[in-house]
Structures are given as C-alpha cells and as structure tokens.
Amino acid sequence: MVRTGDKQGPKRLIRSGTRVLVRDLPEKVRKTSLQSAFGDFGNVVRIELMPEQRTAYIEYEEPRDAEDAAKEMDGKMVEKAKVRAKLMDDRPRAAMDHAIRVQEACLAHLETRAAEHQQRIFGG
C-alpha cells in the first residue's frame, strides 16, 4: 500500500494495483466523462484529473477492476480522443542496496581519475 495526501484531505492508503494512469486526454475532459468510460469495470473510488498534463489517475476498489480497465481502455476513445491507459505500479520502492551505491561511487571515481590521467598523458 502507498500513502498519499493532497490539499483536499489527509493522507490515505492506496492498495497496490488499484490505479490506472490515463494519458492523452482531451484538454477539457470532465470527471463525469471519465466516470462513464471507466466506471463499467468496477467501483471507482477516486479520479484525480490533471488537465494541464492531459492526464488522470483513476483508482478502483479492486485491483482486478483496475487491470481490466487498463487493458480494455488502452487505445479507446474518450471525448473524441484516443487515450492511453496503463496499470500503475504502486508498490513501495526499496532503497538501493548499499553495496551497489558504493560500487557505483567507486566506478565513477575511477572513470574520473582515468579521464584526468589520459588528458595529462595525451593532452586535451
């Protein structure tokens, strides 16, 4: 589960696999149009609309409903616009392993030193 919050209310939990990202929406799309188009797949809990980005997040009560909606609505028309829909991966991200971070830092340092050395020997 993922915690989320916005200006309209307190933080709440989102079940993993219950959100669909919808892109390429018409500029003046309405939530009621999205509810009509996506509501047939299950109980829509919330619609977050970002009209300036022509994007929306549609949250379902059940992950299966979100999966069905994403699969069926991808490439379909909503208010005369062909939209892209995909299931969001809302799983919490694990922090990068410490050993990998150390290895990447060492590699970056070695590359920098090698470039400096090469420039001293061969010139710029």
Automatic annotation (TrEMBL):
SUPFAM superfamilies: RNA-binding domain, RBD (SSF54928). Gene3D superfamilies: 3.30.70.330. Keywords: RNA-binding. Transmembrane segments: none annotated. CDD domains: RRM_SF (cd00590). Pfam families: RRM_1 (PF00076). InterPro entries: Nucleotide-bd_a/b_plait_sf, RBD_domain_sf, RRM_dom, RRT5_SRSF_SR. Residues 18-90 form the RRM domain. PROSITE patterns: RRM (PS50102). GO terms for cellular component: cytoplasm; nucleus. One of its GO terms (molecular function) is mRNA binding. It comes from the Eukaryota. This is RRM domain-containing protein. The lineage of its organism: Eukaryota, Sar, Alveolata, Dinophyceae, Suessiales.
